[in-house]
Amino acid sequence: MGSRVEISNEGGYRSDGRRQFELRDITINLAQQGQADGSAIITHGLTQVLVSVFGPREAKLRSQTIHDRASINVEVNVAAFSTGERRRRGRGDKRVLEIGATIKSTFEPVVQTMLYPRTQIDVYITVLQQDGGLLQACINGTTLALMNAGIPMLDFVCAVTGGVHSTSPMLDLTTLEENDVPHVTVATMPRTGKVALVTMETRLHVDRFEEIFRLAGEAGKVLHREMKGAVMARTSTLATAMGRQRSVDKDGDEQMHE
Amino acid sequence: MISFASFPTVSDYSGYNKPHHPHGESDDAYMDLDADYDQTDGSRLTCPGEMLTSSQDYMRGHGTYVVDEDVIASVAGTIERVNKLVTVRATSGRYNPEVGDLVVGRITEVQPRRWKVDANGRQDAILMLSSVNLPGGVQRRKLESDELQMRNFFEEGDLLVAEVQAFFITDGSMSLHTRSLRYGKLRNGQLVTVPPILVRRLKSHFIALPCGVDLILGLNGYIWVSKHVKAAEQEGEEGFDAEGVYSNVNDDIDETTRTAISRVTNIVRILASHFVPLTDTVLTEAYDWTVDQQGGVKDLLTEDFGDALVASLVSRS
Fold first, then answer.
1. Which residues of chain A have pLDDT under 50?
2. Distance between terminal CA atoms of chain A?
């Protein structure tokens, strides 16, 4: 590759101090954002993505309605300040459109769209910071936002990026590593172990593919645990907030009967 | 008398509130438990992809699907069971209409013989010209001239309160009606939106607070806060006053009423942000508490004040 950057040093540590298979820190925020029906902010290390979901709602254009299921509309917006080098990406940017189309096709079989005929589900993704693994962050964020919006889905979709440096595979690449290392993004559905998406933009030796693919599947399970924990915590917070008040209602009823 | 119990009440009878033991005891009548489940409320929580039970013993309801004889959750929320029917009720999401529900909506489009209404549902609701009361008596026939002047009754952007009349078989969208003197165009107030799950089915969704403010709690999460209208004025006579019903002009609202309306609106916002279900008792208590605290209306929106309000409501229960 002729790169001057050392991908992993003699001790087996990567440029940001992680081990070969170590994932970056994840934070998940499922709080309400504005008027969205569901939203999520997810960070993988320094990559941060905000996803807002609206719907199912009446489609804006009649041409977009599908008579027997909901249509999913994904719009990706990359903030100009999200990269080291300030750069404006318009809405028509091919890279951005491709991410949107990939996410749409990933979620169409997972979301139970046939329950909501003639409607539209809008997914708006805003990339706030990027440091590699953009697609994985977008997919994980979309999963969480859809669940937060109460939209029925078959399962979680957990995405992770894997790469291979000479012969040693590694997970969850940063921008620095993505520039030098052939990589593949894999999205899995942990309950069945089915794969929702495999995509790569670089060339990867076929002998290395299987190993990375399996590793990414394992990493998906780890991510699933984190994401499920966040969803359950949010659900529990809301359920207790509502349950707390149920006793007040009962008091009110008694007063009325007296 | 037929009573429509809300979902949580039903689950009280379903045997789910009995204490469970997550480990050891193998009680096959209940679904298997997991350490993750929250048991503070007696209800159990789940999230998509979680196996709930076997489809041989139970029927699947909303929020679930079946694969290979397993009933699996498809939304995150509380598990509810009525006899053999297992459903998962999502803690968030759009309004799920039922016939007879009271909703507040906004006209989005005027079409031939019908209006399209945004009622926070998954599709726009439909209000047919034949399901509204027109000036000149309840029994009056709809004429061609009425079709031509539909915008005199409702225009794009108008707010209205209506009842869910039926569903269209073709696509499941809801049809509304305003064939009651209590329903119709809204004025003299302001709209607040809250998550629909926070509005429970009550005996009456028209609430008159002691502070001279009327509330309409739409089951779709749209809440109309307005100046109090005296019952006598509202009832009207047989040939009801069309000017009043379809008027676009607000009455005079004095300063104190305006303040009271803003205060109630802010209280609703606070309660919604803390995910507290809205009932008349809660709202009255909250109003009295804020007046006791002698805070200005805009102080309500500070985070500390909101937390204190909710804490006081909870401690009172």
1. 1, 247-258
2. 83
CB distance B314–A244 less than 8 Å?
A: yes
CB contact B202 to A (< 8 Å) = no
Instruction: Output DSSP code: residue B140.
Output: P
Is B306 an interface residue toward A (CB < 8 Å)?
no
Among B7, B9, B40, B47, most A C-beta atoms within 10 A, so best to mutate, is B47
Q: Cα dihedral sign for A15, A16, A17, A22? A: negative
How far is A125 from A40, CA to CA, in rounded Å? 10
pTM of the model: 0.86
Identify which of A58, A150, A240 has the shortest CB distance to residue B93.
A150
Q: Is A235 on the interface with B (CB under 8 A)?
A: yes
Q: In chain B, what is the straight-line distance between the N-terminal and C-terminal CA atoms, in Å?
A: 30
Backbone φ and ψ of B268, nearest 5°: -60, -40
Span of A41-45, B8-12, B28-32, B275-279 with lowest mean pLDDT: B8-12
- B293-302 as b/e, with b when 16 or more CB fall inside 10 Å? eebebeebee
SS3 A135: helix
Cross-chain Cβ contact A239/B47 below 8 Å: no
Residue B297: what pLDDT?
82
User: What are B154-193's pLDDT values in tens digits?
Assistant: 999 999 999 999 999 888 899 999 988 889 999 999 999 9
What is the ipTM score, two decimals? 0.87
